[in-house]
């Protein structure tokens, strides 16, 4: 058994222990250096969600082991609901002529690579179905799911306040094939880049989507797949903001410049800041500066509490590369006061900071 496999096994055992401790609250997501936590399900009234299905591809993992078909209610965070039930779904929306998913939470499903895949789509309450909308793809961590990422990242209120759609894709085997990790998605060679492309195409049918403003964020394994999308799908993704993740795909060969904002804690035991099995946060930061042909030295652009954000600002095509180093933070989502692996940090809200970063960029 190689080193990566040993680490995966050890972290998986740790996850089992955390999940079985009877304490409620959070469970973890781990793999060879990846994981994310997930708060326990909130209480509150659930609304009817919309489920629609399409197909794409014919080969791949066993469809019976595909993504979850469970549909969350309208609760996005404890005590916060998205309003009245929505039962409307109009497929085939073309040219933003009307129809499409209304405000609320929806589960959409599509078949890709022989497996049934799903995603939660959160449409803000003030959404105009005829106005082209930016979309943030928010990827969960290893062993976790889309519903957990809704809670852990707290991105829905940010979407509501800023009028963008946020989509939480569901990974096969609760994992993403981000390159060197993670879990069964890698072992089964799941075509997650193809799935994301198929999902975005599907979103074009369900929403008035602005194709120039599709962004990617995610926690841990979900952050790893965000990095991979920036390496391999720069025609699709306008910018990325991974949390507790570094580049784990080799080679990383983006076809154009792409803006990147990273959030990494210095006390993260699962994705060590200074590296180990995988690349360090500073090295990924430097690599993105190299890929974007940044010619300056990074300068401090934000410093609050334990957070120091440094930015390369003189890069080709007007893009920038930022690393927010969070002193003493563990494997956590910045802004969430609860963290399953280490000390949390609320000096910066990663979901809000990511959106403020994203809104400056669109595809050329």
UniProtKB/TrEMBL annotation:
Keywords: Carbohydrate metabolism, Hydrolase, Polysaccharide degradation, Secreted, Signal, Xylan degradation. Residues 28-92 have a biased composition (Low complexity). Residues 1-19 form the signal peptide. The keyword Repeat does not apply. It is found in: Secreted. It comes from the Bacteria. SUPFAM superfamilies: alpha/beta-Hydrolases. The keyword Glycosyltransferase does not apply. Pfam families: Esterase_PHB. Its main location: secreted. Residues 17-107 are annotated as: Disordered. InterPro entries: AB_hydrolase_fold, Esterase_phb, FaeB/C/D. Gene3D superfamilies: alpha/beta hydrolase. This is Polyhydroxybutyrate depolymerase. It comes from Nannocystis punicea. The lineage of its organism: Bacteria, Pseudomonadati, Myxococcota, Polyangia, Nannocystales.
